[in-house]
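Figure caption, in words: inputs first, then the predicted bound structure.
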Amino acid sequence: MENLKRPIKKAVFPVAGLGTRLLPATKVMPKEMLTIVDRPLIQLAVEEACEAGIEEFIFVISEGKDILIQHFQEAPLLMETLRARGKYDQISKIDKINFSDSALKFVRQDKPLGLGHAVWCAKDLVGNEPFAVILPDDTVLSDETCLKQMMGGYHKMGGNLIASCEVPIQDTSRYGVFKMIDRKDNTFTVQDLVEKPDPSLAPSNMAIFGRYILQPEIFGFLDEHEKGTGGEIQLTDAMAKLIRHQPFYGYIFEGERLDCGSEIGFVKAQIAFALKRPDLAPDIKSYMSQKLKEV
Ligand code: UTP
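Bound structure (uridine 5'-triphosphate present):
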C-alpha cells in the first residue's frame, strides 16, 4: 500500500482538444490561452500545480499550440525592455512564469482521439510514478486550490483520487459520473464510473471534475485504445477498469467550479475572478449594479 502513496511530482495538462464550443475564438487561439482577467487558463492551471508541489509540467499539445509552451519560456527582449523602462511590477509577473527546459515537457497528440488518448500520449514522460492530470478549462475559485486540497486526501489514503462535484441530475449526460459508497466527509470510495449517462441511468449526481491523481498502472488500460462514448478513447473507461485492481476515491473539493470550456462558464469566470481582485472589485460591482438596473 505504501507503494500507492508515492509523492506526486509530475502533472499532465491535456491541451490538444479542438475547443469547438468556444469557436470562433478558438479557431486560431488555443482555448487554454484565453484569459480570465489577466491570466490565460493554462497559467491558472500551472500555478495550481505549483502550489500543490508539482515540479514537472507535461503538456499534451496538438499542431498550432506551441504558443502554450512559449508562454512559460524566457522572453529576453521583453525582459530587457521592461528592465530598461524600470517596470519592475511587470517583470515580477513575467519572472514567475519562466520555467527551465527540464521542468517543462511536451508531447504531441496527432489527432484529437479523446482525453484518454491524450493522457496516454504522456506515458513515456510520466514513467512509472503516480501523477496528476489537470484540465485547464475546468477552473475552481477557492481559498486553497483544488489540487492542493486533493493532495491532502492523497497523503492520507494514497491510491487514485478524482475531484468530484455535485451536478443537477438532468445534466449527468454531460459528465463522467460516480457510483459511490462509504462517503466520509469530503471523500468516498468509487465503485464504478460511467461516462455521460442518461439521467434515468445515472448511478448518482456526483460528477468527475477535471483534476485527477492517478497511479501509473492506468497506462496499462489506456494501452488498449478502446473507443467509448462519442467514439473517443475515454479516460473514464480506463479508470473504470483500474477500479477493480486498486483503491479509488472521489474527493469533494471546496470552491466554486467554473466550466471555462463553455461560453456561459467563461463569462461567469471573468466576473467571479475579477470580484476577487481588490483593485477591480469596486468598479466591477458598481458597473454590474448599474447594468442590472438597465435590464
Ligand atoms: P473537452 O471535452 O473540453 O474537449 O476536453 P475540447 O476539444 O477541448 O472542447 P470542445 O468540447 O470541442 O469545446 C477536455 C480536455 O481534454 C483535452 C482538451 O484539450 C481539454 O483540456 N483533450 C480532449 C485533448 O487533449 N485531446 C483530445 O483528443 C480531447
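The pocket of uridine 5'-triphosphate is lined by residues 14-21, 31, 60, 109, 112-115, 117-118, 135-137, 261 (CB under 6 Å).
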